[in-house]
Write a structure and sequence with these properties.
Order of helices and strands: HEEHHH
Distance between the termini: 76 Å
């Protein structure tokens, strides 16, 4: 087989793949969805889907209600972070007490007296399961916030940013308790 013939065949096949299939592939306008539009730039225009096809705030009242809901969710996320910080501090104190109680046991023949045990907090189901659930809730809210920002709806974005800022102002001092020694 001749290499020139191979190049000719490849060029012909590439032209077949570029043929018009009847679809408008321009990205200059909004993407038409079943319920609303998705504008590919920052905007204040109502009508964006928020998480579900059924949640499309089109009126100004619906937009205000959605922005209030997003503001409250942002506050809740910061509140969960504060609760985690306070609980981490409490759990660390309890783990230290449990570890010190274990170190005060009488030495046996199998344990060496000079052995210094590194401190690893014990697994306490009541603490660690709650920690995991709270972290999962924070991760879920973070992903929902990311999807909200991806709508490019500035009202939604401002609601989240202001809600996170107010939440950090109200609860931020509690979330840092878990970071102190």
């Amino acid at each position: 087989m001749n290499w020139q013939y191979l190049v000719f065949c490849l060029l012909c096949l590439s032209q077949v793949g570029l043929a018009d299939n009847g679809m408008d592939m321009s990205t200059d306008g909004p993407m038409d969805l079943a319920v609303g539009n998705m504008l590919p730039y920052l905007h204040f225009t109502p009508g964006d889907n928020l998480w579900f096809l059924g949640w499309v705030p089109k009126s100004s009242g619906a937009m205000i209600g959605t922005c209030i809901a997003l503001f409250m969710l942002a506050l809740i996320e910061r509140w969960i972070a504060a609760c985690r910080g306070v609980m981490e501090y409490h759990w660390r104190q309890q783990a230290t007490i449990i570890a010190s109680d274990e170190l005060n046991t009488l030495p046996t023949k199998s344990s060496s007296v000079g052995f210094i045990k590194r401190f690893t907090p014990p697994f306490i189901p009541a603490h660690d399961i709650v920690r995991g659930v709270m972290f999962a809730a924070q991760a879920l809210l973070s992903y929902l916030f990311m999807l909200t920002v991806m709508t490019y709806q500035l009202s939604f974005i401002f609601s989240l940013v202001v809600g996170l800022g107010v939440g950090e102002t109200l609860f931020g001092r509690f979330s840092s308790i878990g970071l102190t020694h």
